[in-house]
Amino acid sequence: MRRKYTGVRVAVTNAPARTLGLSGVGGLPVRFEQRPVFSDQPVPPQWFAALLDTLGPWGADAPGSPPVALAVSGGGDSLALAWLARRWRRNLLALVVDHGLRPESGAEARLTVERLHAMDVPARLITLTDLTKGPAMAARARKARYARMVQACQQAGCVDLLLGHQADDQAETAWMRSNAGSGPDGLAAMGWISHTPDVRLVRPLLGVSRVALRQTLRAAGLAWVDDPSNQDLRAERVRVRFALQDNGLSEQFWCLAMDAGAQRMTRERAQAMALAQTCAFYPHGWVGLGQNLPEAATLSGLIRTVGAQQYPPAPAAVARLCKNGGAGTLAGTQLARWRDEWFLIRELAGVSAPVAASPGVVWDGRFVLHAPSALLRCGVYVGAAGYGLARKIRAGWPALFCAGLPALWWQGQRVAVPHLGWCSTADWADVFFEFRPPVPVTGMGVYGCKKVHNKDYVGPVG
């Protein structure tokens, strides 16, 4: 029976004109590494293994070495990833997360662990107990899931985490970002590799269709779990998925993402060169930009990093900031002029709330506390230094800059601002904060493919 879209269907006519005329429309299928991207044929394990070799380096596949981790929900994509990965190497660790948001989720998670064990893939079950239904539930669940998986990776010594995003996901993401007016970096959609401070996220299936992965499991005689939310037309991604399928546009938007990704890699190399020549990064968490502001694309990446944002600000907002002469705030950051130079600093109004102090705690998404456990007595917390620091303590830096620095507080009193080399007593002298933003300014990962012919792609672009 045909699906009914009344009131929820995505209109194909809304697709931006810039997506028209891309390769992959009509004629021969688009191919990646000599295989049709949207093929319905099972994925050969040797093809998968050869692709993984291009996404390395990888640790030793030997007992006693840290394993490569996999995120496995139990659905067709991630379970096929586990099956293929097991034929690539033995030293693996599958991470299965039970959100607890559906009555059957616990049983499905346990069943997935059993299926992984039957595939000879070691698995660890992670149960989330503090998620509640309500606004932005999907985003909150995703954030909690990744946080716990990263924690599990740290405990097991894993530096790589494989994810099961595939070619249909990539096309859907490109459509959604295109309709949202994303800039050229956003149109690159998901990267083959994304670097985070703690783990490298690798998506080896971006050139493989959803159907091919399920056919891979069928050929192996394996079953998977179907999440009913994947059919819920209230979700934008589900509506986009059906619209792409019904109108034969998956190839077109996959090509859009891969072409945009290759262009992004070229821009990022140029931006990295420009940053090295013109900008000064301070351990205090701010950036000296020189006498002139960088171009908007570079400034956008800087704002993302200094503001500890998951995504860069809207291109139009960055353009307005530059047009207004630079002075102003955006995405938790502030442009300030000092000694005839521009600086990008953290906006005090945007910093995180105070947190209890403990070794390794992260404050404001950017600063990691290093301190002896014995020193962090009950009641010590990390928060913004705020105003009121004497000029001598500030070592000449403007009060506006120093107000957003991390400080230790105890009994309502500021006791240490390590970046300024100040502490109230010698007891706090060994405390310091490491500036470790969640994302770099550029070089976040590997995006796109090399196009060697109108419809033939190879590589990820390195």
Automatic annotation (TrEMBL):
Description of its domains: The N-terminal region contains the highly conserved SGGXDS motif, predicted to be a P-loop motif involved in ATP binding.
Record function comment: Ligates lysine onto the cytidine present at position 34 of the AUA codon-specific tRNA(Ile) that contains the anticodon CAU, in an ATP-dependent manner. Cytidine is converted to lysidine, thus changing the amino acid specificity of the tRNA from methionine to isoleucine.
Subcellular location: Cytoplasm
GO MF: ATP binding; tRNA(Ile)-lysidine synthase activity
Binding, ATP: 73-78
Catalytic reactions of this protein: cytidine(34) in tRNA(Ile2) + L-lysine + ATP = lysidine(34) in tRNA(Ile2) + AMP + diphosphate + H(+)
Family as reported in the entry's similarity comment: Belongs to the tRNA(Ile)-lysidine synthase family.
Transmembrane spans: none
Residues annotated as domain tRNA(Ile)-lysidine/2-thiocytidine synthase N-terminal: 68-241
Highest rank taxon of the organism: Bacteria
GO biological process: tRNA modification
Enzyme Commission number: 6.3.4.19
Protein name: tRNA(Ile)-lysidine synthase
One term under GO cellular component: cytoplasm
Pfam families: ATP_bind_3
Gene3D superfamilies in the record: HUPs (3.40.50.620)
InterPro entries: Rossmann-like_a/b/a_fold, TilS/TtcA_N, tRNA_Ile_lys_synt, tRNA_Ile_lys_synt_N
UniProt keyword terms in alphabetical order: ATP-binding, Cytoplasm, Ligase, Nucleotide-binding, tRNA processing
